[in-house]
Amino acid sequence: MVAPKRAALAEANRKLDSASRKLAAIRARVRELQERVAVLEGGLMKARAARRTGAARAAPPPAARRPAATPRCAARAQATEDKNAAMAQAERTAGKARLADRLINGLAGEFQRWTATIKQFTLAEGARARPPPPTPSKPRRAARHARRARRQASWSATRCWRPRS
Known about the structure:
Blueprint: H1 2-53, H2 71-125, H3 138-158
């Protein structure tokens, strides 16, 4: 009676050990995959941040790059990277130019609208547009001083002023 139960217990323990080993292997694999996902997510976040700030594309980590077979291949790969970086920069610059064009066109429309509004207000008030009053300038000041000097000279000539001896 006890022997069959012991045999069943031994069989169950063997299955448990086998399942435990499989579970440990699966957990180790999951841990490796989670670490790899964390590394890839970090790279993705860096790439998104670089794209938002307009920075050049970050090079992949050295472990992910394949070594160049020959110096010629390395030069070609570098040239391709330079070309891609230049194309990305040109695309960003073209985007900025499009935004600037939209801004300028929008402001031009506002200028026309403001000009039309000013004309409407001027007509509504019945006032005509007058030029602004002239601002005082140096020639006017000089003319004022010259007039003052002439007045003083004529006054002193009529009073017969003589210096004391």
